Amino acid sequence: MQALVDDLLTLSRLEMISGPPVKSLVPVPDILFQIAFDADVLSGEKCHDIQIDADPAIWLLGEETDLRSVFSNLIFNAVRHTPPGTRINIVWGNSPNGAELVVQDRGPGIAASHLPRLTERFYRVDAGRSRDSGGSGLGLAIVKQVLDRYGATLKIESKVKQGTVFSICFPSSMMSITHEKPLSKAS
Length: 187
Fold this sequence. Notes:
By secondary structure, this protein is of the alpha+beta class. It has five helices and eight strands; from the N terminus they run H-E-H-E-E-H-E-E-H-H-E-E-E.
């Protein structure tokens, strides 16, 4: 219940904010390694193979809390909805249109008819799924709300029985190239 309340408060806060995000330098690779570590803990006995490839030089100008929420929602969803022992790939880097995050799983996939509605509040692909296994139904709505503020795009590709790929492209105006050393996966 607390997670549902937290998600509702987050979504409400995001809806009340107008204008672009505050532009602080955000060390995305560090955040992704921290989230991957948390995702490994969340995976527990399911022993997912979580692989991360993050370009240490690509950072974003934005709000760390919002970006962490976006990244963790996508990565934790992959852990929740992917069968035990399967691989989850997380890739962060430069693309022709800006900075890109790709989260790819080899889970059950999502039928094409559901894809346009995934970012709606409380929408669930499996209506029988409980909050214990499926989250609050607000995670992707939060992702969409944050990405709209950033002018970023979310692309979802999925094939039933083959897996799902979530890709986010942040505009190049939000990117920052840095030479600072990121945290390692062991941190």
